[in-house]
Amino acid sequence: MSEATRDRLGELTTEEKASLTSGADFWTLKPIERIGVPSIMVTDGPHGLRKQAADNDHLGLNDSVPATCFPPAVGLGSSFDPELAERVGVALGVESAIEDVAVILGPGINIKRSPLCGRNFEYVSEDPLVAGVIGAGLVTGIQSQGVGSSLKHFAANNQENDRMRSSSDVDPRPLREIYLRGFERVVKDAQPWTVMCSYNRINGVYASEDPWLLTEVLRGEWGFEGLVVSDWGAVNDRVAALAAGLDLEMPFSDGTTDRQVAAAVEAGDIDAAVLDTAAGRILDLVDKALARPAVAGPLDVDAHHALAREVAGRSIVLLKNDAVDGAPLLPLAPEASIALIGEFARTPRYQGGGSSHINPTRIDTALDALTEAAGDRVAFAPGFAFDPRTDAAEQNRLREEAVALAGSRDVAVVFLGLTDPEESEGFDREHIDLAPHQLDLLDAVVAANPRTVVVLSNGSVVALPFADRVPAIVEAWLLGQAGGSATADVLLGDVNPSGRLAETIPHRLEDTPAFGSFPGSFGHVRYGEGIFVGYRWYDARRMDVAFPFGHGLSYTTFSYGDATARVDASGDVVVTVPVTNTGARDGREVVQVYAAPESSVVERAPRELKAFASVAVAAGETREVELRIRREDLAYWDVRVDRFVVEGGTYRIDVAASSRDIRSTVAVEIDGDEVRLPLTGESSLAEVLAHPVVGPIVQERLAALRESAGGAMDADVMGDDTIEKMMQSFPIGRLAGFPGMGVDREQVAQLLALGNAPQQ
Ligand code: BGC
């Protein structure tokens, strides 16, 4: 807290301090004119500004001032490029500053635990590293403009179903390694001005009133310096929330909760210093907002639209591009006549429903962009109507018209996807299928013209039962307001696709990690899959998937040379690999580095992403790519000592083009963190053997025993190793007096005392 803030706090009454810690209305904080504290505005987020000038709501129902709708996180995350995210952040900051918005409510980096989560389009990845790195890029960019960000939704908010009550019941390892890790990275790397706590409970405790989450972990362990704001309506018990570390309740109450806070302070139920701290953080936030350099409007709509188009182009993932008649179907041949099919090409779905809903400055459609580029080589048929109430005869007519068109053209490009009512904030999907009439249409089109490209518009993965039957598939997600032109850029080859899947596309919902435990029941959802989320799950079970995490094709090809890996002075692992663009086009490759220890004391995924880089490589060029694995990212959460621990030993480093396309593997030796646990009679023989002091003594004793037992231990039949393995879990205390062991209680006690004695 600054000196100035402390002074101003001294001038405020308890009631005034309490009033500072909740909103004035939906989007503004309360001023205290008496001492010159103005009201500041906070507004959604995350992929564009939703500043409401008139009727306010937090569900995206009423209009907001026009703003650039950048690709939602599902798109941006697929770029695997934090620099691109930072540029988007800068643009969001500029738009916020022009509109005098102090804090933009984003990014959202919750883990995509299940493809069913209705809000996955607003989240980055199933992997915490991708979520954290992209999130940090956005925050850095936004805040470089003197505008605050709000990292949300903290934490373990991975579904919409019952989101305001449900308890996410998560064990410590997955909580730390999967669900909190991205937040930890953003907080440590980018210091967001605010963190937004989520609606849900975590292991029974509301996030809004969890002192462990909001204070111990966020501030104590991670060093968060900003303020914690509630999600809109997330406060259950305001006084408990304040005590837990929630500084600002949003949106507003009728004054009741402010009075509760003031009364609790007066009655001594809560320390006055706690309210001072929260009110001080609000004053600090206001100061930061006031320090923002003035930004002259108006918004350069064209420049931001161009950026939105560039980013959308970088977000598209080319899933499949088989050769037909000797050449890949994409990019579309320059002279090809095109049957453009699917309502999404004319009426794009470019964002999701709910609080992130932007009023865009303009909207590009693929139909317009392709027509502009290819003229009358393009003919369009909607193929289906979005409205599920459309009668069957009309859907049939639309299908027949499209099929006839497909048969008369060189190539068919079919836009399929999810409609607004199928996917939104506020509710989850119940399946991952495209509408039957869309799938029927595709089958009929492919029968009429096998040269068919599918373009998908969806905020989260859908099943692709047709994947083997169509030669080319473009995953075009929800791409923001310039998605239509960006999709045309990729189809025509003006942009070489470089997006990669930040979430696995499974064959079936039944294959997904949370199947059977999503969305839970009776107010609880048990995260039974533990750390095995996303590709960690499919890899551990060696399951076939439709398209793996990290996958994405290009119009060129890349080859990888031999990777090297070394541990540098800081303990990080530096990986280098030469990457050559072996094709005829310039392109970008997303180089991915996965790691896993060769053996571990805990369950581990077969590989985990530890570093990645999106690099531009010109045709024919070779680039030496250097990637850094942070030492702390190798750690697992050790429940015995309640901290992250790096295990010592050999780690396998896979340098890869996707989680299932490993191009070079190297090994690296890592020095482990020391974990000193007191030895007790319950310590297993394995634990005792691992002890630096008593381990060698016991080892010697065992060798002597083996020697003296000779044939009696039947080492020839079982092998020394087998016997040791059998003994590994034997508690040392129970060895005392055990027949044939030759150790008594006194000796065991001495051993334990030696092990527990302070070491020099
Ligand atoms: C959402 C937040 C959003 C807030 C304000 C809530 O319903 O969960 O993400 O920032 O509303 O609109």
UniProtKB/TrEMBL annotation:
Domain spans labelled Fibronectin type III-like: 589-659
Keywords per UniProt: Carbohydrate metabolism, Glycosidase, Hydrolase
SMART domains: Fn3_like
Gene Ontology molecular-function annotations: hydrolase activity
Matches recorded under Gene3D superfamilies: Glycoside hydrolase family 3 C-terminal domain, Glycoside hydrolase, family 3, N-terminal domain, Immunoglobulins
InterPro entries per record: Cellulose_deg_GH3 (IPR050288), Fn3-like (IPR026891), GH (IPR017853), Glyco_hydro_3_AS (IPR019800), Glyco_hydro_3_C (IPR002772), Glyco_hydro_3_C_sf (IPR036881), Glyco_hydro_3_N (IPR001764), Glyco_hydro_3_N_sf (IPR036962)
Protein family (similarity comment): Belongs to the glycosyl hydrolase 3 family.
Name the record gives this protein: Glycoside hydrolase family 3 C-terminal domain-containing protein
Organism listed in the record: Microbacterium resistens
Phylogenetic classification of the source organism: Bacteria, Bacillati, Actinomycetota, Actinomycetes, Micrococcales
